[in-house]
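Researcher: Please translate sequence to structure tokens.
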Amino acid sequence: MYRGDRFLIARRVPQGVWNVIAGQVEDGESFPTAAARELIEESGLSGALTDLAMPQTYVIEPEYLDLYAPGETTVAIESFAIEAPHGWEPVLNHEHDTYRWSPAEEAIALLHWPEMKVGMRAVAERLRGRPSA
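Model: Translation complete:
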């Protein structure tokens, strides 16, 4: 999620790590449907998402294996972006305790998971190439 040249990151509890608004695909959901649902649940924002068309996979960290089905060791993810309206601020759910709007490089440095850093870099690069309004 971005607004102008700033990106929204939120601190997840109880891990205390910075992340983008994200979540899991539920049974029967597509990635776009899950992304839209998680966006509303975790931030209160709804709107048209841009599919970044950059599927990734990652290995589940050992301390999170109990959150997945037995034998699951990797996760497939897809990334989406959305521009937040001017003046809008998120209403975080119980999964986060604070948030901040940061320039891309600062946000990337704070993000915990490498896959999220890749997605944020991709959005920042696309925005830099966008004509000025």
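Researcher: Any highlights?
Model: The longest strand covers residues 96-103.
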